[in-house]
Structures are given as structure tokens and as C-alpha cells.
Amino acid sequence: MPASAATRKKIESLREEIRYHDYRYHTLDDIEIPDAEYDRLVRELKQLEEEFPELVTTDSPTQRVGAEPSETLATVEHRLPMLSLDNAFAEEELREFHARVAEKLEFEDGAPDLLYSAEPKLDGAAVSLLYENGSLVRAATRGDGTTGEDITHNVRTIESVPLRLMGDNFPETLEVRGEVFMPRAGFEAYNEKAREAGEKTFVNPRNAAAGSLRQLDAKLTAERPLDMYVYSVGLTEGATLPDRHSEIIVVLRSWGLKTCPESRVVKGVEGCLEYYDALGEKRDSLDYDIDGVVYKVDSIAMQRELGFVSRAPRWAIAHKFPAQEELTTVEDVEFQVGRTGALTPVARLTPVFVGGVTVSNATLHNIDELHRKDVRVGDTVIVRRAGDVIPEVVSVIKKRRPRETKKVELPELCPICGSHVKREDGEAVARCSGGLFCRAQRTEALKHFVSRRALDIEGLGAKLIEQLVAEDRLADPSDLFRLTTTELSQRERMGDKSADNLVRSIEQSKSTTLPRFLFALGIREVGEATAAGLASYFGSLPAIVNSSEKDLTKVPDVGPIVAKRVRNFFDEQHNLDVINKLQGLGVHWADTEPMEIAEDGPLTGRTFVITGTLPSMTRDEAKDLIQREGGKVTGSVSGKTDYLLAGEKAGSKLAKAQSLNVTVLSEADLLSLIAS
Ligand code: I6G
């Protein structure tokens, strides 16, 4: 039976509605309807399209993934070449660029007020999208700028790329350019899954984006969490666009295309530099990799006047951030022993300037990771340093491997104390079995014990601890409380006053809290949050020491593994002896009432993550509330998270929750969930 006019109308209105909500979700990040309602609309449209296949159109929201993989990627000629940008690496080069612009535009005052549109330069893959009468008809890679590859089937799977433009005032032909990228959260989640499945991981989000776009089978691309920001217009026919770049961006956004929320109009070269510094500060907290800032003269008329030089516009420049990845060689690999005995392979590198500092050591995480990357002494490697994160070896350039390299194996004995190195089944980490007999473990345990979030002993630095351990003056933490001013003041570079201050701060640290004390003990898997959870659930140390593994797992956040670690720790008499000695020397805290947790509360079985600033409670208060009502609170968003409680200034956790389709709640939503 042919479809009635009413059915046709219904199908079109469902499509419109779905497109609108896609736009709100992907482009504006501001949803209007719950997921279930959106799913219902999609289901209804799918049913109608199944019933009336002749009404299926390629720009229907149900048609993102095509049926057949293609055999090769066809070549596409760009009607307007996709140009590249000149780079500026130093402030001086940016000033020279601005001076050239001002001169060519015949400004006599150096154009201090000239407006530029500034936005981040994303580290992804440049793509052109062609819309004919509002429908996406072709997507292509930049290629050599003149010819690229047809990647329409793959780009159609990117949910933030509209298959149909919104509104009706778009040009008949509209070609836009932008960057396809893989958000960091999606990249991490994708790699985690690939690692678990023993599949190949991506080296960085840029390779992930570029590789995903070149798939022959769009079903594979559809599984990759890709996104796209549009940043300029190529070919247009049948409409005139605004005469400022910043206004064109606003119009593109109104047609449903996603543009970078960080773009701003700035004044003169000073405005550019301010933007560059501010974005540099923000760089590590963005949910996508960027490698610089692009400034464009905002006036399109001025852009026309400036024109092009060879293959780059004279009116735009990319101002690069210091590279976060560089090449260097591995001179040696050594094993560091941490607080819990974990052996971490560390590559000793030929020093290289990366991420703004000179790096000569980089972590290889663990022996499996080292073997997976097949890092050998003598290899040329990519080293990465992003923000304040410890530099890491990303990958080996196999083509540059010299004939003679040295493979690295896990040592059988601890390089520090000679105890056996052991590895529990299924664990990636190998550990020294020496415990506090191992000086490295003792040193790290003591550093942890005195650290700010533990007993907070000010003035007791890492160097002094290392020296005192090396002199066998500190066998366990209780020895800290036996240090005297006289003894300390005789040390090199320690005056009477510093010694006195240190002894005073050791004395002050005796008055502590149960969460701090538990955390300070350095029990494996017991971080600050778990220590706080144990303390508020049990209220006192004896209650914890005497609890069974089963009781321990009743504590929110504590699973069987953590419970076992806690039990094992308190089953060791020497640990109880240290605690007794510490208490005997005056370390004390106040106990609290044990916590009552609803056995069958409204949140039982639900896992929450909290982020941002909530309107009326602190995050700790929200956590307590959730736990009392039976819910669990964890620190990071994963596939196991049911809800993200998000307040203002929610950052990457919100992005990750959205990429994993985790329900996002406001404080008010949480309160009504509890009341319901
Ligand atoms: O490669 C680019 C990255 C970002 C660009 C670009 C951009 O704007 C934010 N803009 C132009 C005009 C070109 N390449 C050629």
C-alpha cells in the first residue's frame, strides 16, 4: 500500500524533530528532552521507514551507516583548493605577520585595533563537507590540497555532522571545511577497550581520527568516537554570506554545523597574544588536542585585499604551541621501585626539548607496556610530555632501529634490595617482595606518610628522607617522632632554626584525623577517597582493624580487591606494631559515629561520579548524601557509571559522560531521584 500524505508528513516531521534534538545535543550541548524520549522518536521513524522503504532518503537521521563497504577510496578534486596555513613559532614571527598585514592594508598606525578572529588549531584531520540544497553529498580529505579522498561514507557516521542543514536560508551549494578529531575522553575509552580485547591501540588522537576516516567499512568508523568543528567556508553558490569571518561562524552554527566554542574576536596583535596565553593555560583541560591558535583577519573585504601568497592566505596564520612530542633515543632502561614495590621501567633518554622543558627520563609504565611497544636500548622513540604529566615513551620508530639494540627484560631480583621480584597472576605490575626491608619502598612509604594529604609534616623534604633512610635512621614511620632538634641541627645545611621548625611540625602532625592516618599508612589501593570512606563508615580504627573482608565491602567504594588489601595489611603483626608505636608516641585523632547506610535505598546499586560546583552543597556533602541513600561514588567516569552529578564548570568528566551516554543529573535531579 502506498504511503498516505499523512504518513509522509509524519515521517518528515519526525526527521525534523530528531535533527533538531541532534543539533541541541551535539552542537549546542544543551538537551531539551530525556534520552528515552529521543530514542522513542528514532524508533518510530525507523518503524515507518521499514514499512515504507520507498520513503527512505539518504539524509534521514536513520541513514548514517551505509550497507556496503567500499573497495577503495575514490579521488576527489577540490573545486576550490584546500590551502595550508603559514606557521609562527615565536611571538616575534606573529608580530611580523601582523606588521605585514598592517602594511599591505596601508594602515599608518600599525593597526593596533585590527580585529582578528582567533580559535584553537585542532590536532585532527582537515575535511571538506559539500552540501547541495542542504543535504550532505560529499566529504573529502584535504589530500594534497587539490585532490583528496572521498570519505563521505565515513563522515556520515559522525553524529555532530548534520546530514541535512537546518533552516532554509543556506546557499544552494555550500562547501565548508573543518577538522575531524577524536576527543581525548573517547580516545582513552577506545584504547582501553582495544587493550582489553587485545587489539591494536592508537598512538594519539590525531592518528585515531585520520585512521578512522580512511576506513573502507563505515561500520568500523561508526564505532570510533569522532567529532568535527567547522572553521571556514569554501565554495558557495546561491547566497551571500556575512562580511566578517566571526559572523560567518555564527551563521554556520545556525545551520546546525558545529563550530569551536573557544573562538573569539580579538583586537590587534596584543589581543592575539593574550588569547594565545589564555588558551595555552587551558590547553590541558580541553577535551581535545590542539597544537596552536589560528588567527584570521576578521573582515572578509580585508581578506580579499590581502589575498594569497603561494598556497597560503596572507590574512591568516597558525601560532604554534611548543610541540608535545619529539624524537630522541633510548640510552638505557632502568627500573624504579615505588612505595608499594611496583617496578616501573624508566627510559633514560638523550635529552630533548619537548612540551617546553628538557626531558631526559620517560616512563614506560610497566613491563608489559614496554614489551608491547617493543622498546629497546638504542631505539629512536617518540617521547611525549603534555602539561604536567610525567613524560612517556609513546612509540618506537622501527625504521630507525639500529642493527645492535638491547632488549629489556624484567629483572628477577629487585635492583635496590635484591629481594625476589614477583608478579601476581593477571597483574601488569611486577613488585619487589622486600616490603619495608627494601630501602626504595621504605623511602617512598615515608615520603607518602609525611605528604600534605597524609600527616602533612612541613619541612621534611624528599632529600632529607632519602638521606635518613640511607643512614638507617628511619626504620619505620614511628622513628620520625624520635628525631630531635640536636640531632637534626648537626646535619649539613640544616640550621638550628630549621631543625627546630621541623621538630615542631612533626609534633603538630601528631594531632591528625582518622582519614589522614589511614591514608598515610599507604595500604595498597587505599587512596584518600577510600580512606575517607572507611573512616566515615566505621568511625574508629579498631572497628576497621577487626572487620572481616565481607564487612569491609559494605563500605561505599570498597570492592573485594580493596577489602582484601585492607585485611592483609591489618593481618600483618608488624603493621599493627607500627600503629601501636605511633599511638604510643602521641599520634591521635577523634573517632566519629559509624555511618548508617540504607540497605535498600533509592540509590542502591547505582554508581555516581560528581563534577563541577553544585548550587547548594559541597561535593563531599553530595557524596555523603548519595552514600547514605545506598549509592556509590567513584572518581572517574567509565562504562560502569550510572549517573554524572554535574554542577557548574563541569569539565572533561562531563564530556566523557556524554561520549559514553551516561545520564547527567543536576543537584535538583538528584534530590528528586532520592525523593521519588
Ligand atoms: O588548517 C587549518 C586549521 C584551522 C586552517 C584553518 C583553521 O581555522 C581555524 N583555516 C584556514 C583558512 C586554513 N586552514 C586554510
Can you put this structure into words, describing what you see?
- The protein is an alpha+beta fold and 676 residues long.
- It has six domains: 5-63, Helix Hairpins; 87-320, DNA ligase/mRNA capping enzyme (D-amino Acid Aminotransferase, Chain A, domain 1), CATH 3.30.470.30; 325-422, Beta Barrel (OB fold (Dihydrolipoamide Acetyltransferase, E2P)), CATH 2.40.50.140; 435-508, 5' to 3' exonuclease, C-terminal subdomain (DNA polymerase, domain 1); 514-584, DNA polymerase, domain 1 (Orthogonal Bundle); 607-675, 3-Layer(aba) Sandwich (Rossmann fold), CATH 3.40.50.10190.
- The strands form seven sheets. Strands 2-13-10-3-9 form a five-stranded mixed β-sheet. It has a five-stranded antiparallel β-sheet with strand order 16-15-14-17-18, covered by helices on one side. It has a four-stranded antiparallel β-sheet with strand order 5-4-7-8.
- α16 (514-520) packs across α17.
- The model has no long low-confidence stretch (mean pLDDT 92).
- The structure holds 8-methoxy-2,3-dimethylquinoxalin-5-ol (I6G).
